[in-house]
Amino acid sequence: MQLRSRKRDFASSTAVNSTSSVSSTNPPKKRVVNAKFSSLGAKSVGQKVKVVAPTSSKFPVLSALKERVNHASSDSKILLQYSNLVPARLIRRYKRFLADVVLLDGVANDKEEVANTEETEAEEVVTVYCPNTGPMIGLLDGLPNARVQLSKSDDPKRKYAYTLEMIQIHNGERNVWVGVHSTSANRMVEQALASRWFTELGDYDSVRREVKFAKNSRVDFVLTSKNEDGSVAHEKYVEVKSVTLALEGSGDTSSRCAVFPDTVSTRAQKHVTELTELLSTKIEAKTEGNKEKERHKVSGAIIFLVQRDDCNEFAPSIQHDKKFAELCAVAAKSGIQLLGYSCALEPDEVNTSGAVRLLGPLPLQTSD
């Protein structure tokens, strides 16, 4: 499989004027905003069942899932809601987990945060937390004025009150919001699993998260189905990957292929290797006295959650991590499902809120 990268001008949708430019004669003032009590940030909504978290017990009690509700359209499939989004302009991203932004709509000029009138004459640069370990290829071309959305924490112990949630890019045809909060992908998948929106995973009775399955390793989710007598019949181990990069697709010039990762990821390689080794272990019948007892069925899946709505297909990126792509090919041959799903990020700046909506599955791009 060979993907062709396409150069695009990821121009910012926010115009730069002479008074707000970083190169202004009045350099922007930089500060760190400590977290203060405020309205809630991002949270999962509409969850129908509690997903069991790890406990001290070796086998946590499994929670039963409610029957799936049939939805007529994807509009009702809300994966995540934001109740307190703050618009800003991204100036730079550095040290992997930090970014400098200029808050918009007067947020930075709050009386509690500005000491004197001299500070209001120049823009203030606020340092925020950037929850993404990758290079964010294709997302930072609009700097130093890329439009972004932040969430604000109410935890007074946090050093950085604001967290970078999404960034707006131009894909050559239109503006697109892209989610950059990597761990949000797990929360969104958890909501979808609890609602049974991923029909490709088959039937299951319960969900556990953060389950240890190998030395020093945990899988994101385990889906369990039971026999009539209550014993475990089938366990499906599910790993989640957050996808932000899109390259030229295999169709016409307007098609886009979401790819993961956007750089070499030894951690992702490790996850795929251990999951494949787990499922490739032969299921042998155990003999207990004169009674044979068969082990339950085990399977696996890797969910690639594409946090943008402009892609037609997805694939492991052979350009950015050839070994990971090869390991995924081996995993697929061993029976592990490689599933891509796209979602739409929809901020509402008028009401300082927003939501992430599940769109549907994406086909896997394969080599000719």
UniProtKB/TrEMBL annotation:
Domain SfsA N-terminal OB residue range list: 91-180
Positions of the Sugar fermentation stimulation protein C-terminal domain: 185-285, 297-348
Listed Low complexity bias regions: 11-26
Pfam families: SfsA (PF03749), SfsA_N (PF17746)
Region (Disordered) residue spans: 1-29
GO MF annotation terms: DNA binding
PANTHER family: SUGAR FERMENTATION STIMULATION PROTEIN A
The name this protein goes by in its record: Sugar fermentation stimulation protein
Species name: Phytophthora aleatoria
